[in-house]
Design a protein that fits this description.
This protein has ten helices and four strands. The protein is mostly helical. It folds into two domains: 64 residues, Arc Repressor Mutant, subunit A (Orthogonal Bundle), CATH 1.10.10.10; 162 residues, Up-down Bundle (Four Helix Bundle (Hemerythrin (Met), subunit A)), CATH 1.20.120.530. A two-stranded antiparallel sheet has the order 1-2. Strands 3-4 form a two-stranded antiparallel sheet. A hairpin with a 3-residue loop joins strand 1 and strand 2. The radius of gyration is 19 Å and the shape is globular. The C terminus is likely disordered. InterPro entries: GntR_C (IPR011711), TF_FadR/GntR_C (IPR008920), Tscrpt_reg_HTH_GntR (IPR000524), WH-like_DNA-bd_sf (IPR036388), WH_DNA-bd_sf (IPR036390).
């Protein structure tokens, strides 16, 4: 692996995990001291991350980690819903026996993952996060649409970043009522009781019911008030 790839992986990991917070400046001196890479691999990595909407180049200020807000999270969820809905339909129409087995196994793993709650240990959240994403990926990979799968992977990364900031307490909402409502919504929608009916409808090939449940699951933020940026 080249130094550019190593720098890119390290920066992306820390942005998605919340180790690098929203709006944090990414100066050459700071990044070199933190990661040990020279300017060329760091510059190339930052350029790639800008293309993924994880960092922003601000005129006369250099690169910064992209900000995060409830409004952005809601927009990301809408984009996710559009892509995931089509992939779910394709999976229900085209998924074979192996697809069904992958879905059942992913559901079992998710049922044994830690329960989502604010301030939970980072290791427990990682277990939940991996199991939750694996379930949704299994549910939607029966149609084998490579391009939609790539787009969905990028969207999942942004969803994970926003939710990790909230759940692990690395960023707070300025409106306490919205903060509490968002956390309650995240806890409710992450439970296995939300995922089991979705799995059952998909495996029963009940396309309309599965899509309805997916919309309920992903669209749970729409009833919340607009929040201020995460800081």
């Amino acid at each position: 692996m080249s130094k550019t790839d190593q720098a890119y992986d390290a920066l992306k990991r820390d942005i998605l995990s919340g180790a690098l917070l929203p709006d944090e400046p990414l100066t050459v001196a700071t990044l070199t001291a933190r990661y040990g890479f020279g300017w060329t691999p760091l510059r190339d990595s930052l350029s790639r991350l800008e293309g993924e909407n994880l960092v922003t180049l601000v005129r006369n200020r250099g690169y910064r980690v992209n900000g995060a807000s409830f409004a952005e999270l809601r927009d990301i969820q809408h984009a996710r819903l559009a892509i995931e809905t089509q992939m779910l339909r394709d999976s229900i129409r085209l998924g074979d026996d192996d697809w069904q087995k992958r879905v059942l196994l992913a559901h079992r793993t998710l049922s044994r993952a830690p329960v989502l709650k604010q301030g939970m240990p980072a290791a427990d959240y990682e277990r939940f996060e991996v199991a939750h994403q694996a379930f949704h990926l299994a549910l939607t990979d029966g149609g084998n649409n490579e391009w939609l799968g790539r787009f969905l992977g990028q969207i999942y990364a942004q969803v994970r970043r926003h939710q990790r900031l909230i759940v692990l307490g690395r960023a707070a909402l300025s409106d306490p009522r919205t903060d509490a409502a968002l956390l309650a919504t995240l806890r409710s929608s992450s439970g296995i009781e939300h995922h089991t009916p979705l799995m059952d409808a998909a495996l029963d090939r009940d396309e309309n019911r599965a899509v309805e449940l997916l919309h309920r699951h992903i669209g749970t933020f729409d009833g919340l008030d607009q929040a201020q940026p995460l800081r």
